[in-house]
Amino acid sequence: xxxxxxxxxxxxxxxxxxxxxxxxxxxxxxxxxxxxxxxxxxxxxxxxxxxxxxxxxxxxxxxxxxxxxxxxxxxxxxxxxxxxxxxxxxxxxxxxxxxxxxxxxxxxxxxxxxxxxxx
Length: 119
Hints:
Blueprint: H1 2-19, E1 27-31, E2 34-39, H2 41-50, E3 64-67, H3 85-94, E4 98-104, E5 113-118
Parallel strand pairs: 3-5
Antiparallel strand pairs: 1-2, 2-4, 4-5
Helix pairs in contact: 2-3
């Protein structure tokens, strides 16, 4: 729960940071027990260029779940992903893809945070 409390202001700060630049098209989404934000290819590139995803590295790996884009170079053995959050964003940007971050209710989902690469 402490992780969730930490991520809400952090996510708000990220949105504010991105909104300070060019017109933002970040798309919020929600569903049963989760809320998230999807960044378009331009925003994903901006996050990669500024290393803005590094602020999420303070969250322990046990709280993350990652859905890699097709053909990702970071696919590990079994369920493991060998990459930093910044590397995942940079890879999505290199494919002109999108990155999404979701914060989930731990009473419903196994992990607190999901990262999705899409290209």
